[in-house]
Design brief:
Blueprint lengths: L10 E8 L4 E2 L9 H14 L5 E5 L8 E5 L1 H10 L3 E7 L2 H13 L6 H21 L6 H13 L7 H18 L3 H9 L3 H18 L9 H6 L6 H8 L4 H12 L9 H8 L11 H14 L3 H6 L1 H7 L5 H13 L5
Parallel strand pairs: 2-4, 3-5
Antiparallel strand pairs: 1-5, 3-4
């Protein structure tokens, strides 16, 4: 039975009223969409506020008495509409409150791949910090992944795209292994380990390169507003551009396309002068293998365990020895719990 995540010390108070001017919004993990905030403010003014924002007390030397934890669009919306806010005070450690912000926002409907990657990366940072601070009690799999990561990251001669893959794989393994998250990843975050890895890859290769601070020229928000930035497949294609200079140029080109004339990443590559990748479609056995591995990547750990006898019976008799040797090698490397 998988272990449960550690209990949180986060607590909430009773609901009270606040002037949005008394709330310091501060830096957020995701984006604030002004048009969404304005629409939400109009609804709250007309129909009332259903869900209170969550705030924590600020230090005595701060300009404003409260700091926002959850509810940026409601806070800005109330400011636009000139109304007060329903709020509840929340307490907890910095990591707990940041985790709460990320976890609540990741469940929002309509959230795009770029913003989702930002929330997942924030959660990964917290879990990785906990992992490295305390190895005792962790699974052999997560410890083995950590050791391989520590060895691999010391190799300075490594391509940028390969490094991104390595970091994404490491983060996904840490989250999946820590506190028994093999099953909880799909249940709590509603995604497979492969999806988790993809979003960490997006953050490393796209969000980090684009930048999130608009005052410093960050283009991540502008990219997220473009139809291509709203498609996970397209964002993954951008992240797959190996040359970092070319990747940044493509990001800038798409982010600057306010009329949405660019219809594909391939078109953006051509406009910039980069030849789009055209890998030959797999055929025959390669096609079957590609389809099989893609489907297997979608299975949770629980499905692998329950279907183990079925998988074993599907192995060709002549390949049994090789498959067993490969499994034994993974177990010996510390990848089994």
């Amino acid at each position: 039975m998988a272990e449960q995540t550690p209990p949180s010390s986060v607590t909430n108070s009773a609901i009270f009223t606040l002037d949005p001017k008394d709330i310091e919004v501060g830096s957020r993990i995701g984006f604030v969409w002004p048009e969404k905030a304005q629409a939400l403010g109009a609804i709250m003014k007309s129909d009332g506020q259903i869900e209170p924002v969550q705030v924590r007390r600020n230090g005595t030397e701060a300009e404003k008495p409260w700091r926002l934890v959850i509810g940026a669009h409601r806070t800005f919306g109330a400011g636009y509409a000139g109304i007060s806010l329903l709020a509840t005070e929340i307490t907890g450690s910095v990591d707990e409150l940041r985790m709460k912000e990320a976890a609540e926002n990741i469940q929002r409907r309509g959230i795009g791949p770029i913003e989702r990657a930002m929330f997942i990366r924030a959660m990964a940072d917290i879990y990785e910090t906990r992992f490295f601070e305390k190895n005792e009690g962790d699974t052999a799999q997560s410890i083995g992944q950590s050791r391989r990561w520590q060895e691999a990251k010391t190799q300075v001669q490594i391509a940028a795209d390969k490094k991104a893959d390595l970091e994404a794989d490491h983060s996904a393994a840490t989250i999946a292994g820590l506190y028994g998250w093999q099953q909880e990843t799909a249940e709590a975050l509603d995604m497979s380990a492969r999806s988790l890895r993809d979003y960490l890859f997006i953050h490393r290769t796209v969000v980090t390169i684009a930048g999130t601070d608009e005052s410093q020229g960050g283009r991540a928000h502008a990219l997220a507003r473009h139809p291509l930035g709203a498609k996970r497949k397209s964002v993954m294609e951008i992240g797959g551009i190996g040359d970092e200079t070319a990747r940044k140029a493509i990001i800038d080109l798409i982010a600057s396309d306010h009329d949405h004339e660019i219809k594909s990443v391939g078109e953006a590559k051509i406009k910039w002068g980069l030849k789009p990748n055209r890998s030959p479609a797999p055929e025959g056995q390669s096609k079957y293998m590609a389809n099989a591995t893609a489907n297997l990547d979608r299975l949770s750990a629980a499905s692998w365990k329950s279907m183990a006898p079925v998988f074993a019976n599907k192995i060709k008799p002549s390949a049994l020895q090789e498959v067993r040797d490969a499994i034994d090698a993974r177990i010996a490397a510390g990848e089994a719990e």
